[in-house]
Amino acid sequence: MLRLVRNRRRLLRRVAAIAFVVVVFVIVLPRVADYRDVWDVVKGLDAESILVLVVATIANLATFGPPLMSVLPGLGYWRSFVVTQASTASTYIAPGGAAVGIAAMLVLLRRWGFRTSAVGLAVALTGLWNQLAVLGFPAVALALLTLTGGKNPLLQTVAVIGFSIFAAAVVAFAVTLASDRFAQRVGGWLHRLAQWGYRIARRGPVGWTAEAVVEFRARTAELLSRRWHGLTLATLAGQLTVFGVLLASLRTLGVSGGEVSLIEAFAAWSLIRLLGSLPITPGGIGVIEVGLTTLLVGFGGSQAEVVAAVLVYRFLTIVPTLVLGLVLGPTIRRRPVLSTPEG
Predict the structure, then answer these.
(1) Among 65, 123, 107, 75, which residue's Cα sits nearest to residue 338?
(2) pLDDT tens, position by position, 149-187
């Protein structure tokens, strides 16, 4: 009975997500700008503009792998590229969002002979660093917007909330790394929480103890002491090249700096990137489009040009990865890595 209720709820969530996406693309966006006008804007792209968009897209794709490389010794660039493309593509086509991507990454890396402990640590750290960047960017955008005399109440609210979570997460993570005793306490809390969840789900006993968190702390501290610089730089590069695709889309499709400045574009992007990370639809489809369009038009962008830029941006940040992931994922075979992975 409990499983039936969960399945119904899951089905209702999927139906609601699909309905939301349909409403956004069939009703909301056409009211902002007629799709015929949007298509006229896109058709106006010249060869130079297309080249700019291609270069921005390639730069974005090229930065997928390095964060994982930095925390998983022995992986190599090509393998990091393949596994990140495949795992990201899975988040767009399979229900479950980020959880599906993480599971896919774990499976693919295990096929190459990496130990589960090393893979789990690498996935956890890259996920944490990405989330910290997403939480921190709105605060940076708010500061830059304020310095240039701009205001946005929604950005201000989200920036304060995001930065508060960011600061709390950094402090908790730093304290956990610095103290075995605190790690033991956190492990105890997590173990009790997991036991409670298992009882609710009527599953067997939890297969780990609080000591696992202490061991995880030791391995994390050792790895980050050597590789936190590379992980941080690679994460920032990966995040900012996504913004680069949006900026290239805006400028090539006629949204000038006089309409939407660089800082305003960054503010809109950072705010919607945070809101789009909520598990409402796969990849934030629908949420990001309507949110970005609303903010960019609010900053002064022309409606048809903004809608065109947002749709092109979303196409370039989703479709290439989806195609590459679906093509490259099945090529992964069970092969040992060339060097012994650490962890």
Answers:
(1) 75
(2) 766 676 667 667 767 777 777 777 666 666 666 666 666
Residue 39 CA to residue 26 CA, distance in Å, equals 15
Residue 79: CA count within 13 A, CB half-sphere = 23
CA distances from 10 to 17, 19, 99, 285, 286 (A): 11, 14, 15, 18, 19
Q: What is the pLDDT of residues 194-215, one digit of tens each?
A: 555 545 545 555 555 556 666 6
Give the DSSP letter of residue 341.
P
Cα four-point dihedral sign 46, 52, 55, 58: negative
Residue count of the chain, please give it: 343
pLDDT for residue 65 is more than 60: yes
On whether the CB atoms of residues 313 and 257 are closer than 8 A, the answer is no
Would the pLDDT of 73 be above 50? Answer: yes
Report how far residue 73's alpha carbon sits from residue 71's, in angstroms, rounded to the nearest whole number.
Answer: 6
- Which residue matches tokens 């006089």? 258
| Buried/exposed 221-255: b ≥16 CB within 10 Å, e otherwise | eebbeebeeebbebbebbbbbbbbbbbbbbbbbbb
Structure tokens, 122 = 């690498």
